[in-house]
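TL;DR need structure tokens for one chain.
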Amino acid sequence: MAERKKDEEYRTFQLEWTEEFAFVERAGSAVGLICNDKIASMKRLNMKRHFDTRHTTFASKYPAGDSRKKACQELLCRVQASQQQLRGWTQQGEQYFSHLKNIKTNLRSRLTDGSLNACMELNLTTYQ
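>> reply
TL;DR here they are.
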């Protein structure tokens, strides 16, 4: 029984795996920074096997140490920047649909498909 508890302890994500194998924890899973693949079981051996078999060029280009640590940090920054951009696009889309819903609700009796399309074009137009 004690053996099982010890196994479960080792299945939690360890921060050193980010620098060692270019993995991060996302939504309870280990996700590769290089390929965006998810690892089924969060164990060191599984991540090492994945890294050694699929990312040999990365491993040879950035040997373990400061160069790999820096490369993994750059990959992590890129992932975070793309996530932030996606959040911005999502929020912008939600705002557009909220505006359209308000227009449709307030002008339901007088709104035609043509005027709805015109409102959509006005809302999506960016002015410079």
